[in-house]
Amino acid sequence: IRHTVSCSECNRRSLASAGGSLSASSGGRSSVGAVGRSPHHQQQQQPVIQGIRWTCAECDNYSLCSACYHGDAHNLDHEFYRFDYNKSARVSVGKRRGCVKMDARGIFAGARVVRGPDWDWGRQDGGDGRPGRVLDIRGWENESGRSVANVRWDNGLSNVYRVRGSIRFRDFLVHLSPFYPSYSRYSTPIVGHKGKVDLKLLQAPASWGLYYRDHLPVLGERLDSVGGGCPYRVGERVRVARSEAQLRVMQEGHGGWNEKMSELVGQCGHVHRITERGDVRVQFDSGQAQRWTLNPDALERVASLRAGQLVRVLDDETELRRCLVDSWQDWHRSLAGSLVKVHSVHSDSSALVVTSENRTARLDPSVLVRLQQSAETAANNRMASHDIGAPLNVLVQKLIELTSSTDAGAASTSTAGGSSAGGSAASSSSLGACRSFLAEVSQGNLETVRQMLASRATPVDGSINGKTGLMVACHQGHLEVVKLLLSHKASVSAIDEERDTPLHYAAFGNQPAAIKLLAAAGAPMDAQNNTGCTALHVAVNKQHKDCVQALLQLGASPNCQDSYGDTALHDAIGRASTDILNLLVQHQQLKPHSRNKRGFEPLHQAALKGNAGAAAALLARFGPEDCGNRRKDDGFAPLHLAALNGHVSVARALLDAGCNAEIRNQRGQTPFLLAVCQAKLAVASLLADRGADVNAADEDQDRACHFAAMRSGPYSKLPEFRLHAAPILAPTVALLDWNSKAPMPAKLVLTAWMLQLGADLGAVNRKGQTAVSLLGNEPDIVTCLNLFHRKLSLERADADSLCQVCQDDLSSVTFEPCGHRISCDHCSAKMRLCLRCKQPIERKLRDQDLIPAVAAAAAAEAGTSGGRQQNNLFEMQEELQRLREKVANEECSICMDNPRTVAFLCGHQACTDCAQALVQCHMCRKPIQARIQLYK
């Protein structure tokens, strides 16, 4: 944040060191010229203030930077204003004398630092963990202030590095970012130059200085809202322009958050009133009686529309589907990003728009963007903006009106090349003749055009702004006029200002008959305009099937590439027209490996856009080896792109054609790995069903289970939750016993799902981490995952793996020395003999409490000493169990207090006190015939 004034105190010091002086009364201007300095040097501009500007309320034109203000420059009894950014509203902060000052600590000169999270400078620091000392804090040329640190490392090297954009103090932050290089009271994560952090604080210096805490702004408060009023008026139409996550945060302090507000995202309504705090009460169009109080920064104006106005539709098919009032049809895809004309506006503010094909659609105004007046005029005069719905006779009329309002130099008569020789101005009579000629051609008045040509009043290739009569006639489909102009040798190669030819105009106007006439007259079939588009590109983008068919039959190449490297097939895939796709794919000259400037071949484009029909057609003709398994420069194959973007239909088509499910990109990632990483569960599930390796690792040895364990947020917020995630994960969730009041974490559900698929949760990556260790030490998650593993094991268990006693739990105890494993932990507690071999049990080895991967991970990460400690723990637990069993065998089973001192003939025992009262044995109910005293 840069201001337009410099710091008066910094100027004074600079001039004082050069032999001048500066006074507060002079407003920060030098009162004595620098002795011995040239006038040019005296007028040198001082650096402007970056960050907060502090302006004295009592002195004229006296401002301080933050360092000088907190350093007690100027009179402490003078009141100051704070300007958070250039032209912001001023905030009075009062006097500094007597105000609280606090100590600042952080990355300053003298601090010890090590490499941070965004470090990409090799071994300049001598290696990971090697420290260095900050020499000073600098700005990055003119891009940002106090955003880099000059560091000398212990190995002797020094350089500048991007520093963390915030330094924590006791209760405030010093910012070192290019966005706000100053101070603020409360903490929030901000990063350094260009959003990167190369350094991490290891040891701070003793003190940087003091600061006035209560004079600072609250971090997180929008700067443009300070001191400003509400930008909306009552009755004005607005739209919620923030995502659900953004709106949730922005509502804090502005009426709060309600879960029903998630339905308001993208909705339109009108301002009902403005609250005293500047918040906006909005009545939405959904018919709800309830009005909502919203943060004004979460809203945007919805411009009012009028009949006849040209507007652009947002280039977002998802948003277009939501805002389409009519039922969705395939041709509606062509509306995205196109220019349309408003036919009428309904009472609910929705607009009936007309496309260039004279089709109508009813849209919510939130997806319509108004054009500025200049842009609207340009759209009517440039072939580059051919997505307008007005007929070309209106376009020509606007052209004539525009030409008549300028001087004669704005128009010219053109030769067959489409430009005037030497650029000289045409006479007014020639200009008028051109106007009349084009107007008659646009109306299709054949006889009038014939008479004008016969009289030679205007040349056949006369033009206005490069547009000839043949172009107009081809666009309008006046075939007899086209034949007449061609018979008079009208140029089929003429170009307008955008280098569009008559063939381009015919393709845009959906005139296949005109295309055939032009081709017969020798028109160049592959002529390209300024954007590299051929007539075939135009026809494909406008979805004019008959024109595409005519152009291909007449020799147009399907392999020409525009300025973006896209062929007509690339464009057709984006438009998703099945008929046109089939025409292009079945063309004998089609090259399936044409790459655009982003490196995408047609099949890559189909995988990126989710066009399963195009993918299937290409694979059917060219096969998986010649087409399906080809990789981009970064190693991404079509299946990678389909997995990354969640296009399950494309992935299915690729797999059905025999594409390699284990293909890897340059980072060693498989499609399954990418699908899990992006939580595209439909594709991941499909790949797993088709035999994809769920334990495949990338170059960092990270597996899908690692990415599952690193997923943040609740399970219900997973992408495509209702459509794919919820049905796929439903069996997993049913087995999870989540008893916490907190929402079920996504990482728990995904990790459990990976366990169901057979993932090895104990696999270690290059950082020594397992999926279980990445879950963290959260007891609820560990317990839930352990129970899930037990349930999963029970579901998959056969009869031999169940406990032979209770048949309810898994056999989890191994007896030694026989080695049999026949009972669960509970049933084995009192066993002395193995039920299978009848040998005495000397030792019982129990499974660990957590799932095997957890224990294995803990042992791997703890090392040898940790393993010994764990073995010692198990031995102590075993000894404790033996002591408990011994005590249980020696205590009276009736009173549980006294030792057993009396035995009966049946073999059972009791203590002396209990035995005296017994007539029958308390265990077997046999009559007691004798009591035998025991001595131990």
Automatic annotation (TrEMBL):
EC numbers: 2.3.2.27
One of the record's GO cellular component terms: cytoplasm
Top-rank taxon, per record: Eukaryota
Cellular localisation: Cytoplasm
GO biological process: Notch signaling pathway; protein ubiquitination
Coiled-coil ranges from the UniProt annotation: 866-893
Pathway this chain belongs to: Protein modification; protein ubiquitination
Domain ZZ-type: 36-88
SUPFAM superfamilies: Ankyrin repeat (SSF48403), Mib/herc2 domain-like (SSF159034), RING/U-box (SSF57850)
Residue span(s) of domain MIB/HERC2: 99-178
PROSITE patterns in UniProt: ANK_REP_REGION, ANK_REPEAT, MIB_HERC2, ZF_RING_2, ZF_ZZ_2
Renumbered ranges of ANK repeats: 465-497, 498-530, 531-563, 634-666, 667-699
UniProt keyword annotations, A-Z: ANK repeat, Coiled coil, Cytoplasm, Metal-binding, Notch signaling pathway, Repeat, Transferase, Ubl conjugation pathway, Zinc, Zinc-finger
Membrane-crossing residue ranges in chain numbering: none
GO MF, any single term: ubiquitin protein ligase activity
Protein name in the entry: RING-type E3 ubiquitin transferase
EC primary class: transferase
Domain RING-type span(s) in chain numbering: 803-838, 892-925
The UniProt record lists the keyword Zinc-finger: yes
SMART domains recorded: ANK (SM00248), RING (SM00184), ZnF_ZZ (SM00291)
